[in-house]
Design a protein that fits this description.
Layout (H helix, E strand, L loop, with lengths): L31 H4 L16 H14 L20 H7 L2 H4 L9 H18 L3 E3 L5 H18 L6 E5 L5 H8 L3 E5 L9 H8 L4 E7 L11 H10 L3 E6 L11 H4 L3 E4 L19 E3 L11 E5 L2 E5 L16 H37 L18 E4 L8 H10 L6 E2 L8 E4 L7 H20 L1 H5 L12 H6 L6
Helix pairs in contact: 3-11, 5-11, 6-7, 8-9, 11-13
The structure holds pyridoxal-5'-phosphate.
Pyridoxal-5'-phosphate (PLP) binds next to helix 6.
Length: about 475
């Protein structure tokens, strides 16, 4: 196998190369120093003199080094990398949406879309009101936990702890701490579920504001005791927060509001089909039950007798969590997605995400260790494998070896409840044929671990760079040679 390191743009030019498509300059050259003081001038970065087609080929080639959903499966657990239908892009680019300014007078259409999307999400989640303002999942969590805080303050109660199970997404404890709470961590049991007796014990402390639950949790398990869990928390005056970033497998099937949850956030950029990764853009709407509506952030859109109206601020509200209305383009995409699928389609997508995950699991569980299904239960949309392969081959080796097979690797080393976790989420938009490619690759890697572990230990072999120091590369990336 040979590694092909792409050339830099600086290496492509050579003396005498002509750029034929740029017309000859027919105006007089000016002395830059005469019009711009040197400190405002750009350093000479010595760009090479190369023709247009070389530049185009250079950047197209680089873009092809990127793995993307438009190339093949992207089974990144917890991230819900589903195919994003192109119709969403078409509507988000309609000039009436794309070129609207938040301060312009006429924005009835945008307000209506935001309101209607809120209505759809209320229906899907069984909640009473939604804010579209938060810009991402973690931002939604912070908003939700600040609502917890407002609620208890308004009742004159001092509660400074939040219960977070160890099967929660990492952002859950982080958001709670940012909002000023300390964490009581609950260890999940052998089924990946919350031990009810320990939950009750923790709630009895009296200083607990409530529970933050990721459901289905990060091992892909839907907690069977979900209504008992919310009952226990409520019995001691606590609130229940539902991390609904993973709503994909249950949308249209069951509703967190009916499970007893008081607050939920959703990740529109996962479940409701907006391209994401590499930092954005996202939207993390937060839904609440009736009792918590007064604390929602402003501005809010409400429906009155005169039609839609905007509440700019209120005495009880948390205040602003973001400029203007949130990431409007993402809201348009989510709205389109829900409209295009309809109630039946939403439910079918949820069911297929579960079928796909369980198909993958069933084709791998004879060789890979897949815990938390001891009693033969199905997973939801994802599952976690503990990758202890022969000859010490581990999760990272498997992940890097997948890259050599032109597949994207699932999430590794998360959740922290296992030693060599690999978290697989195929999503509903993969065909059986594409799932089979991943299965074949993972089985092949397993066999290779027995006879040629060295090849796996030094993978990837075909990518532009080999193994990096994970920590250093993330903190101090070297983006040029
Ligand atoms: C992705 C995810 C989050 C965080 O969402 P961001 O938009 O990345 O901030 C929170 N909880 C769960 C369960 C997630 O999967």
């Amino acid at each position: 196998m040979t590694r092909i390191t792409p050339e830099l743009i600086f290496e492509k030019g050579y003396d005498g190369m002509k750029n034929n498509f740029v017309p000859k300059m027919d105006v007089e050259e000016v002395d830059l120093n005469a019009i711009l003081p040197p400190e405002f001038q750009r350093e000479d970065i010595d760009l090479p003199n190369i023709p247009e087609f070389t530049i185009v080929r250079h950047f197209v080639n680089l873009s092809e080094k990127n793995h993307s959903l438009d190339r093949s499966i992207y089974p990144l657990g917890s991230c819900t990398m589903k195919y994003n239908p192109r119709i969403n892009e078409v509507t988000a680019r309609l000039p009436g949406f794309a070129q609207i300014h938040p301060l312009q007078e006429e924005n009835d259409g945008a307000m209506e879309l935001i309101y209607n999307l809120g209505e759809q999400l209320r229906e899907i989640c069984g909640m009473d009101a939604f804010t579209m303002n938060p810009a991402a999942g973690a931002h939604g969590e912070l908003t939700g936990i600040l609502i917890f805080k407002k609620y208890f303050e308004s009742k004159g109660l001092k509660k400074d702890k939040i219960i977070v199970p160890d099967s929660a997404h990492g952002t859950n404890p982080a958001s709670s701490v940012m909002a000023g709470y300390s964490i009581i961590e609950l260890k999940s049991n052998e089924f990946g579920e919350i031990p009810l007796d320990q939950l009750e014990f923790a709630m009895q402390g009296g200083d607990v504001a409530g529970l933050m639950l990721t459901n289905p949790n990060t091992v892909g398990i839907f907690d069977r005791n979900i209504t008992k869990i919310t009952e226990i928390v409520h019995k001691y005056g606590g609130l229940c927060y539902y991390d609904g970033a993973n709503l994909n497998p249950i949308m249209g099937v069951s509703r967190p509001g009916e499970m007893g949850f008081d607050i939920i956030h959703l990740n529109l950029h996962k479940t409701f089909a907006t391209p994401h990764g590499g930092g954005g853009p996202g939207a993390g709407p937060v839904g609440v039950k009736e009792e918590l509506i007064p604390y929602l952030p402003c501005p809010q859109i409400v429906k009155g007798t005169q039609g839609l109206a905007c509440i700019e601020q209120s005495d009880t509200s948390l205040g602003r969590v973001r400029s203007f209305w949130g990431n409007f383009g993402v809201l348009v995409k989510a709205y389109t997605y829900i409209k295009a699928l309809g109630a039946e389609g939403i439910k079918r997508a949820a069911n297929m995400s579960v079928v796909n995950a369980n198909y993958l699991r069933s084709q791998l569980q004879d060789i890979y260790d897949i815990p938390y299904n001891a009693n033969g239960r199905f997973n939801m949309h994802e599952f976690v494998m503990d990758c202890h392969l022969p000859n010490g081959v581990n999760a990272e080796d498997v992940a890097k070896s997948l890259l050599d097979r032109d597949l994207y690797a699932p999430t590794i080393y998360f959740p922290l409840v296992l030693h060599e976790p690999m978290m697989v989420e195929p999503t509903e938009t993969e065909s059986q044929r594409d799932l089979d490619k991943l299965i074949t690759a993972l089985r092949e890697i397993y066999e290779l671990a027995k006879i040629n572990p060295e090849q796996l230990k030094f993978a990837p072999h075909k990518t532009p760079v080999g193994r990096l120091d994970n920590t250093y590369a993330a903190r101090k990336p070297v983006l040029k040679k």
